[in-house]
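Q: You know discrete backbone vocabularies at least as well as I do. I have my own habits and do not want them to colour yours. No explanation is needed for now; the record alone will do.
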Amino acid sequence: MEINIGLLISYTVTILLMIGVPIALTLVAVFRFKVSWWVILTGVVTFIVSQVIHYPVLQLVGKLFNDGTFPVPPQQWIPLFNAVILGFLAALFEETARYFGFLLLKKKTKRIESAVGLGIGHGGIESIGFAVWPFFPLFGGALINFFYILFYNQGAQIANGVSMEQVQYTVAQIAQFWTNPWHLGFLPGLERLIAISTQIFLSVLVWKAVRTKNFGWFALAFVYHMVIDGIGVFLSYTGWGAWGIEGILSIFMLANIYLIYYFWKTETDKRKELAEELGVEVEALEDDEIEELDEDEDEEEDDEEVEDEDDAFTSAASEETQEDNTTIPE
């Protein structure tokens, strides 16, 4: 059987990315930016918990449509319908789990580095799961499947009692795999890079929701997650090719990276200003001082809202006075 060397190389690179990128990001977060291992682990747990609930619900919803309990939409609406349903369910369970993860570790996630760390744990375990866990939902075990293709032994299979027909069928499937274009092997790796960047960005948004007690950030994370998942589903149902879909989603990856950098820089600048006011190094800032900074900002926002309301009230009162004056006869 002839092996496609280009596909072999691209698939090997993909598997290294799927496993290596999460590990590298974790090490950088922990040892360079002092993110607690508990934060990384919480990200891992939030993903696992969300999927433990998500996939049974997904199967239940599918069953309810298949047995006629829920009406099936017209054929032309199925791509959009599936995109909305699948995107909504993914956002519902993952963002909710992420939110409670931040609440659970609120004292350990006062810095944006921890928000990124939780996202690394959340997206990283997903990436590694797709690579090495054969029972990962939908299409896991890329590494194991690849090894199976590389080292499939027909004689050993027959010796173990596998029928000749089954062995021939498997050999034909493996031969079909090697006929794929060499660049196809990069697709799973690119998809995981997009997913990891998305999970980190979503974690930053949910972190801001918890830190600022502003539910709008959570709503933004929910909608963003729903949209990006929904677009992938919609395009696949409407016949787009794999590279076309990943090309569209790569735009979101670039946006994710920029926005992560933007929020990181904003939070870092705040810490620098606080350190200058206190006359200490940034690294010497205590988490309590950062929390006080957040509380001061919240109070300033509240004061601004009160001032705006007072200004509006004063303006309204002034207008009423002017109206009264115009009605007084001379």
Observations:
- The two ends are 107 Å apart (CA to CA).
- The chain has eleven helices and no strands.
- Residues 320-330 have pLDDT under 50 and may be disordered.
- Residues 287-327 form the longest helix (41 residues).
